[in-house]
Task: structure prediction
Amino acid sequence: MSIAWRNALRRFVTPFVLALALGACAPAASGDEPPRLVPAAALDAPAGGSTRQTAVFAGGCFWGVEGVFERVRGVLSVRSGYAGGSAADADYARVSSGRTGHAEAVEIVYDPRVVSYGQLMRVFFSVVHDPTQLNRQGPDHGPQYRSHIFTLDDGQARAARAYIAQLEAAGIYSAPIVTRVDPLPRFYPAEDYHQNFMAEHPRHPYIVRHDAPKIAALERLFPTLVSPERVS
Result:
């Protein structure tokens, strides 16, 4: 099944038909890096005494990225959406064309007294996605599936760039990290049917095959960071 056709199915058909259509999704390429516990960030973003801060990460299909961070202790809310494009607006149909410059991303609101920006990045690089894949993750191909950290201030930018350099110097991965770091221009929330997709469709073939293993990896690698209850 072509990526363009699968994207069209995601956008326009009912969840039931979509589940049938995606049952035969291609598996992730053999070169994908497996989940692993990467070192903690040596430099973290300042907490600043706030009780609510925001992080925005892009790492492939936002269903799984959202699903993982909804299970992290200290995370208050997660929204799927689009970030980083040059077009003045974003929706799933246009972003899926790969021509708007946006990436599928998630907006994470968290309590820095409970979980730090550095810990969120550690989860991002350990289990959420493969940061060595350029413009793809698993079966999804295109610039909208790129690895990208969108920063909201200089502290986040310094921490993100330092962490990537730290992981590169440690030789964690078998290929170079391609994760981009840029200021967030604007975050566009995705359509309602994309929000909380993993939680609402746990038996969806795409979720079972590509995203549920990320939750298992989170629980295995970060047992003390896993929240007993999912946030929305």
Residues 127 and 218 are 6 Å apart (CA to CA).
